[in-house]
Amino acid sequence: MAKELSDVLDQLEAAAHGDSIAVQEVIDRLGHKSFAALMLIFSLISTSPASGIPGITATVAAIVFILVIQMILGRDCVWLPQFITNRHMSTAKLCKGIGWLRKPVQWIEGFLQPRLTFLLHRPWLYLPLFLILALTLFMPFLELIPTSGSIASAVIALFAAALLTRDGGLLVLSFILLLAIPVAVWHFGFSG
Fold first, then answer.
1. Residue 184: its pLDDT value, please?
2. Which residue has the higher pLDDT, 28 or 144?
3. pTM value > 0.85
4. N or C of the chain: less Cβ packing under 10 Å?
5. How many other C-beta atoms lie within 10 A of the C-beta of residue 44?
6. Neighbouring residues of 44: CB distance < 8 A, sequence distance ≥ 6
7. Rounded to whole angstroms, how far apart are CA atoms 75 and 69?
8. Which of 190, 58, 33 is nearest to 42 (CA)?
């Protein structure tokens, strides 16, 4: 059974100490080459109860935007601007979020396996990367519509999990859900 996702949560939990943790500490812990792991962690934070922190969705959107640009350009090492790497998160809220994510992540891992791996290579990979990039531009506005930011973050988490576990089937699922976000936001945000 694939344990890549649980391993990422373990690494993040091991980095949590003191009252707060800086984004730079998360990057150092997960590694400067782990674009997918960083994307997964930050999108999961925005999906968890820690998303209640004001501005977390916009911050996650900025981080994912920068990561995706670097993936499109083919960079080998992660770079984030200092104003992002210096941001701190509450370790108590972070650990609560990690605890909340453990069971769903373990359940999902039972279904993941390498398949349709050609979708995880260029040129196929460009389409979801550009769609995720577009999604991050709208995420700060999604904070105005309850839960929509968390839904967008969950889609990004699925995409990152697909990259980590080499599961093209999960990539297709994330792509379908990504296309459903505008419909959901319109229905729940503007109807009734």
1. 66
2. 28
3. no
4. C
5. 28
6. 9, 97, 101, 153, 157
7. 9
8. 58
